[in-house]
């Protein structure tokens, strides 16, 4: 093995472009992944120059923190179960419901909308619906003194926000189950319910596990929804860590709390990676639409399925309509007179936030896209010492809850030599290293479909590794590149959990302004901001999809889907 | 272009196998290919022939040994600095580029000007018979056309040597014969030193100046097609190239350089050159089916074989003949209805001297 190692070193050393690329990626990973994490650990465990567990011990014996920890787990479990059930309902309907193409597209759109929305969208609508002067609780039901805050509203908002992840996970798995299998069981005389129970469900089990873990992790890391909806009665870890830092300026306490959050997050990540991670990445094929309608689901059952799906979709659409209306009336619930005032506010007072966000997204997008493609190419195609380590380190910021990453960046880049706090660079770096892994994975997946001999051909024709990458590889993985761009852009417009720690007077973000509006109960501008973000994201995604379609890539459909998978 | 020679000196490549541990893919292979020569590496799948070729191209690096191209040590030189044209089994055309751009690729990398690129690409497309295909996309072409584009791409930048990795195995049988003739004709015309990898012995015999047969990572024999066919060095080569009868024969007597041989107690002929043999020695014999003559046995002759089957195949007729405990494959040209050679008849068996070869 030692000889092989030295041979691969020699190869790398003989290839300046490759050596440069590897060195550049490692420098970036050291600076923006390992360095902040090291600082976070140091802040949490080193005191007066010595190692100490005291802050950790005092933190975990603190009963309010224990409550937050337990609450986080309860919430994540609830969201995992409910979201997986809802995702399965949608996936089953999409695959076996016998819907026409246009209905399917409509269902897809409704299901995927929450994934590309800013984090507070559902929360705002829930307050508008179920708050003290809520449309449903007050206007329709005439209730007074109701509270929209607490566990159930948080769980509902998170379930509606994250169930599309389960849908995207389960749908290809159900689609990959050959209906002929069910047909055969049916022809052998099994009842439909029995077939569903003994054939369909067992085949989908890895998908269920994976969907649950993904939702669990998403809920665990979610910071925005509980901040708005959980209220004082239901504290969770990410919000506690946030309050520790922004309210009490206790960096050490915040660091320790975020590390406690790391425990279940790491457990879920490892479980997902080693248990089901490898089995569920079934590619989406075009076969679903071509198959004849299966009889494995009784006609009445598919009617029920379709009805249930459209009911959920209607709730989602209702929430978004509510948001649009709230952005256009003086004060929703109290004064429903039409006004452009909120839009006027966001384009005057709110303009700096809009400008900053767009600048940051516009710079981060190409950087993140290119970084994702480069790292994906290196780990999928090149053989060099430390390749596995690079793959792992590149995933760290993506796998960690945003709160941890945000606090780590805040601590690491606050002082010289790297005093980046307050600038745009730190926010851009945070987005690039946190959201490019989707582009990395898309690149790896795409490269696995491209035979190595195509690159070898280029090399035998005289092109060095840099030139081969530019002339051959890059054009062929363009779909993954655009998918990477899309995800970084969407997240730059909508994410908050990490970057809320990084905004400053000179650089702020729309999502942070929405949060401020919410806490000031200025719900109109918050709604207007949200509508603006949704429109911008929609336009950019539509533009990228058009580019992808022009590339005529065979995997464009699957890649477009992966816009939303991040 | 000045063709150059290729030399491999004790080249080895190992890899780690999850079950077997460290395994040699290629073991101490030494080779010399002369200027303008076409050498074929022939062997079954997994014999190391493709790995050898890929090391010459620079896609893999040998663990031991040296590789010289035109006298220059290229063992650790990157593929793009070797000046080698490579034709892949799956063509490996750039799917995002037109036929013209595929062929022009190597020239663009060299930074040639547009006019000379257009001229060179036009000429080489003409040469492979695809003159009007320059605007086509690879996916619009048939397999044979794609392979000709790949060939054009590999020769347009005037490489020092040309390497082929099973270039025809994705084509149908008829096209394979056509293409191999074209490749051979083109190779001779431009006089480029070439190594050609295939598992198809007929293809190897048709196209090569010389063939190197590989088995389990090593070269077992090198030589012309005739040498390999009539004088195989090992049973492996004998079995791998053509149909063969592998028999044990006994030396009856030696006179001059003629050695009389009997098989299953029957005198079948004599072979030349094995003068060290003594009466009673046992020899492993290789006899090709078309080198055996059958005659209807004379009545009462006990030293006969029996015809077990007769199959008419058009240009020849195959027989299976038992001789004691062995069954011989015999192939004869001419009509299939010769009297006296029907199934069940007794026949005398003679091996032609030039067609009998003793191993070892």
Layout: helices, strands, pairs:
The complex is a heterodimer of chains A (566) and B (360).
Chain A: H1 2-13, H2 16-45, E1 46-47, E2 50-51, H3 54-61, H4 63-96, H5 101-112, H6 121-130, H7 135-140, H8 151-176, H9 179-187, H10 192-203, H11 205-221, H12 224-229, H13 237-246, H14 251-276, H15 287-290, H16 299-326, E3 329-331, E4 335-338, H17 341-348, H18 351-381, H19 387-399, H20 402-412, H21 424-435, H22 437-448, H23 452-460, H24 465-476, H25 478-494, H26 510-519, H27 523-550, H28 556-562
Antiparallel strand pairs in A: 1-2, 3-4
Helix pairs in contact in A: 2-14, 2-19, 2-20, 3-14, 4-8, 4-11, 4-16, 6-16, 8-11, 9-10, 11-14, 13-14, 14-20, 17-27, 18-19, 18-21, 18-22, 18-25, 19-21, 21-25, 22-25, 23-24, 25-27, 25-28, 26-27
Chain B: E1 6-17, E2 21-33, E3 38-42, H1 49-57, E4 64-69, E5 72-73, E6 84-87, H2 99-110, H3 114-127, H4 143-155, E7 161-165, H5 173-190, E8 193-198, H6 201-207, E9 210-215, E10 218-223, H7 225-230, H8 235-240, E11 245-255, E12 258-263, E13 266-272, E14 282-287, E15 292-296, E16 305-312, E17 316-323, E18 326-333, E19 346-351, E20 356-358
Parallel strand pairs in B: 3-8, 3-9, 6-7, 7-8
Antiparallel strand pairs in B: 1-2, 1-4, 4-5, 9-10, 11-12, 11-14, 12-13, 14-20, 15-19, 16-17, 16-19, 17-18
Write structural notes for this entry.
The complex is a heterodimer of chains A (566) and B (360). With 566 residues, chain A is an all-alpha fold. Chain A has one domain (37-277, 302-561): MetI-like (MetI-like fold, Orthogonal Bundle). Chain A has 28 helices and four strands. In chain A, the strands form two sheets. In chain A, strands 1-2 form a two-stranded antiparallel ribbon. A two-stranded antiparallel ribbon of chain A has the order 3-4. In chain A, strand 3 and strand 4 (335-338) form a beta hairpin. In chain A, helix 25 (478-494) runs antiparallel to helix 27. The longest helix of chain A has 34 residues, at 63-96. The relative contact order of chain A is 0.13. With 360 residues, chain B is an alpha+beta fold. Chain B contains eight helices and 20 strands. In chain B, the strands form four sheets. Chain B has a six-stranded mixed sheet with strand order 6-7-8-3-9-10, sandwiched between helices. A five-stranded antiparallel sheet of chain B has the order 13-12-11-14-20. Chain B has a five-stranded antiparallel sheet with strand order 15-19-16-17-18, with no helix packed on it. In chain B, a hairpin with a 3-residue loop joins strand 1 (6-17) and strand 2 (21-33). In chain B, helix 2 (99-110) runs parallel beside helix 4 and helix 3 packs across helix 4 (143-155). The interface between A and B is medium-sized, with 26 and 33 residues.
């Amino acid at each position: 093995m030692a000889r092989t190692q030295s041979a691969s070193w020699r190869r790398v050393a003989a290839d300046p472009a490759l050596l440069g690329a590897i060195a550049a990626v490692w420098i970036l990973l050291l600076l923006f992944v390992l360095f902040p994490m090291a600082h976070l650990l140091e802040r949490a465990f080193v005191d007066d120059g010595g190692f100490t567990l005291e802050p950790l011990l005092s933190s975990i014996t603190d009963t309010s923190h224990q409550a937050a920890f337990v609450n986080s787990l309860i919430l994540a479990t609830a969201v995992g179960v409910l979201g997986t059930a809802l995702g399965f309902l949608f996936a089953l309907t999409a695959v076996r419901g016998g819907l026409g193409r246009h209905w399917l597209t409509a269902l897809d759109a409704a299901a995927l909308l929450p994934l590309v929305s800013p984090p507070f969208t559902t929360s705002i609508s829930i307050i508008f619906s179920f708050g003290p002067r809520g449309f449903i609780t007050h206007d329709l039901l005439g209730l007074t003194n109701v509270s929209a805050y607490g566990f159930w509203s948080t769980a509902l908002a998170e379930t509606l926000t994250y169930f599309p992840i389960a849908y995207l996970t389960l749908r290809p798995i159900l689609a990959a189950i050959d209906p002929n299998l069910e047909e055969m069981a049916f022809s052998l005389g099994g009842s439909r319910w029995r077939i569903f129970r003994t054939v369909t469900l067992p085949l989908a089990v890895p998908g269920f596990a994976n969907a649950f873990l993904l939702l669990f992790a998403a809920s665990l890391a979610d910071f925005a929804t509980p901040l708005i909806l959980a209220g004082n009665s239901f504290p969770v870890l990410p919000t506690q860590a946030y309050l520790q830092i922004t309210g009490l300026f206790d960096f050490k306490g915040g660091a320790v709390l975020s590390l406690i959050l790391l425990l279940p997050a790491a457990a879920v990540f490892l479980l997902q990676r080693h248990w089901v991670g490898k089995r569920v990445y079934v590619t989406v094929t075009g076969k679903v639409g071509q198959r004849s309608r299966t009889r494995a689901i009784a006609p009445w059952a598919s009617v029920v399925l379709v009805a249930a799906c459209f009911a959920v979709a209607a709730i989602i659409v209702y929430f978004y309509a509510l948001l649009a209306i709230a952005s256009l009336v003086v004060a929703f619930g109290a004064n429903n007179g039409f006004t452009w005032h909120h839009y006027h506010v966001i384009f005057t007072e709110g303009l700096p936030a809009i400008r900053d966000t767009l600048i940051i997204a516009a710079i981060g997008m190409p950087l993140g896209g290119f970084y994702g493609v480069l790292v994906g190419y290196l780990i999928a195609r090149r053989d060099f010492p430390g390749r596995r380590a690079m793959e792992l380190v590149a995933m760290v910021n993506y796998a960690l809850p945003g709160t941890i990453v945000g606090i780590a960046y805040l601590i690491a880049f606050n002082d010289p030599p790297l005093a980046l706090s307050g600038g745009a660079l730190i926010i851009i770096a945070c987005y690039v290293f946190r959201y490019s892994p989707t582009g990395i994975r898309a690149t790896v997946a795409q490269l696995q479909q491209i035979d190595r001999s195509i690159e070898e051909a280029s090399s035998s024709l005289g092109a060095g590794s840099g030139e081969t990458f530019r002339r051959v590889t890059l054009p062929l993985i363009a779909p993954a590149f655009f998918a990477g761009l899309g995800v970084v852009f969407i997240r730059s417009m909508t994410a908050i959990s990490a970057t809320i720690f990084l905004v400053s007077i000179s650089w702020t973000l729309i999502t942070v302004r929405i949060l401020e509006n919410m806490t000031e109960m200025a719900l109109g501008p918050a709604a207007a901001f949200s509508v603006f973000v949704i429109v911008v994201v929609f336009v950019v995604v539509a533009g990228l999809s058009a580019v992808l379609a022009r590339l005529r890539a065979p995997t464009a459909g699957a890649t477009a889907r992966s816009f939303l998978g991040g | 272009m000045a063709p150059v020679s290729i030399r491999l000196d004790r080249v080895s490549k190992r890899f780690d196998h999850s079950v077997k541990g460290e395994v040699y893919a290629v073991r101490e292979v030494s080779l010399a290919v002369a200027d303008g020569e076409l050498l074929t590496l022939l062997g079954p799948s997994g014999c190391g022939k493709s790995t050898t070729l890929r090391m010459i191209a620079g896609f893999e690096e040998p663990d031991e040994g040296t590789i010289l191209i035109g006298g220059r040590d290229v063992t650790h030189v990157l593929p793009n600095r070797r000046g080698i044209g490579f034709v892949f089994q799956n063509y490996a055309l750039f799917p995002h580029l037109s036929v013209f751009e595929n062929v022009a690729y190597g020239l663009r990398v060299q930074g040639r000007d547009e006019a000379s690129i257009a001229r060179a690409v036009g000429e080489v497309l003409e040469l492979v018979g695809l003159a009007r295909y320059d605007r086509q996309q690879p996916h619009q072409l048939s397999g044979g056309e794609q392979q000709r584009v790949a060939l054009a791409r590999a020769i347009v930048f005037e490489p020092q040597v040309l390497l082929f990795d099973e270039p025809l195995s994705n084509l149908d049988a008829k096209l394979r014969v056509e293409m191999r003739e074209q490749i051979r004709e083109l190779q001779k015309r431009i006089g480029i030193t070439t190594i050609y990898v295939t598992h198809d012995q007929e293809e190897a015999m048709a196209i090569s100046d010389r063939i190197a047969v590989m088995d389990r990572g090593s070269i077992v024999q090198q030589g012309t097609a005739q040498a390999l066919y009539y004088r195989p060095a090992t049973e492996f080569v004998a079995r791998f190239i053509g149909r063969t009868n592998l028999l044990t024969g006994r030396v009856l007597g030696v006179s001059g350089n003629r050695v009389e041989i009997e098989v299953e107690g029957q005198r079948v002929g004599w072979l030349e050159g094995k003068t060290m043999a003594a009466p009673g020695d046992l020899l492993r014999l290789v006899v090709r089916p078309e080198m055996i003559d059958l005659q209807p046995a004379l009545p009462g002759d006990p030293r006969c074989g029996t015809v077990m089957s007769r199959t008419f195949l058009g240009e020849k007729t195959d027989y299976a003949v038992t001789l004691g405990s062995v069954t011989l494959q015999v192939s004869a040209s001419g009509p299939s209805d010769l009297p006296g050679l029907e199934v069940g008849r007794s026949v005398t068996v003679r091996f032609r001297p030039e067609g009998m070869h003793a191993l070892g």
